[in-house]
Structure formats: structure tokens, C-alpha cells
Write a structure and sequence with these properties.
The protein is α/β, with parallel strands linked by helices. 38% of the residues lie in helices and 26% in strands. The strands form two sheets. The chain has a five-stranded mixed sheet. A two-stranded parallel ribbon has the order 1-7. β3 and β4 form a beta hairpin. The two termini are 13 Å apart.
């Protein structure tokens, strides 16, 4: 069982996503790399966790864990999703809807939102894959 957030957890998530037969339909036409920042929270996550992913041909081609959120500035990802650790945890546990989180600005999302909106109908794929991903959270040890 991989711990969130960690490189191992991200690698497990990418493996599940890349192996899923429905992903090609959901990812069809996607353009742009993605940066994700899990902001630190006292008593829960000591330092920010930063990931950069590069999708290509309906697969995640490249995954990098970065040392600092400022490292994303150099990469200038087409999309950036940023939220505190607790928000990401609630999303992963299914207790917070991602659309609601964005609308209520619990997640800061930058990029072409039209591409994101067009893929909302595939939300069930993400829910199913996250259900398959066994996760241990850093603040529950």
C-alpha cells in the first residue's frame, strides 16, 4: 500500500491509469502538461509535495516529483492544480467532489478550463481507479 503523497503513490496511480482501457477515450485530444501541488499543513504534511506529469497519446508519458513548488515556474505547465493536503485527501477518499472543490475554490486550477469541463463526463473513470488504488495517508500513521 503506497503512502500519499509520495513518488510510489504517483507511480501506482499512473500505472493504473495507463493500463485502463477507457482512458484513451477520456484523454483523446488532451493537450498540455500538468503540475500538481499538495500544500503542506502543520501536523499533517510537513512540506509541499510537487508533481509534474506529461501526457502523450492518451497515456502519462513522464512523471517527475519536484523538490519545490517554485520548480514548476521553470516548466510553466499548461495546467496547475494546487490545494492543501487535506483537500487532496478528501478528494481521494471520495468525500469531496472535484467540481465542487474547484467551484468553491478549495482547489486552485489554472489552465484551459474548457478541456477540463469537456472531460467531466469521464469522472467515473477517476472514481473507479482511485477506488482500486490502495492508499495510506501520511497523517494517519
Amino acid at each position: 500500500m503506497a503512502r500519499f503523497p509520495s513518488k510510489e503513490w504517483c507511480e501506482d496511480a499512473v500505472r493504473l491509469l495507463n493500463d485502463d482501457p477507457e482512458r484513451s477515450l477520456a484523454a483523446q485530444g488532451w493537450q498540455g502538461d500538468i503540475g500538481v501541488i499538495v500544500d503542506a499543513e502543520p501536523g499533517k504534511l510537513a512540506r509541499a509535495f510537487v508533481v509534474h506529469v506529461v501526457p502523450r497519446d492518451a497515456r502519462i508519458e513522464k512523471l517527475r516529483v519536484l523538490d519545490d513548488p517554485d520548480d514548476l515556474d521553470e516548466l510553466e505547465p499548461a495546467y496547475l492544480a494546487r490545494a492543501p493536503y487535506t483537500v487532496w485527501k478528501q478528494l481521494l477518499q471520495g468525500s469531496l467532489d472535484p467540481v465542487e472543490a474547484v467551484l468553491r475554490r478549495r482547489i486552485a486550477l489554472k489552465g484551459d478550463l474548457q478541456q477540463v469541463i469537456e472531460r467531466l463526463r469521464f469522472k467515473g473513470i477517476a472514481d473507479r481507479l482511485l477506488g482500486e488504488l490502495k492508499t495510506e495517508f501520511v497523517d494517519e500513521q
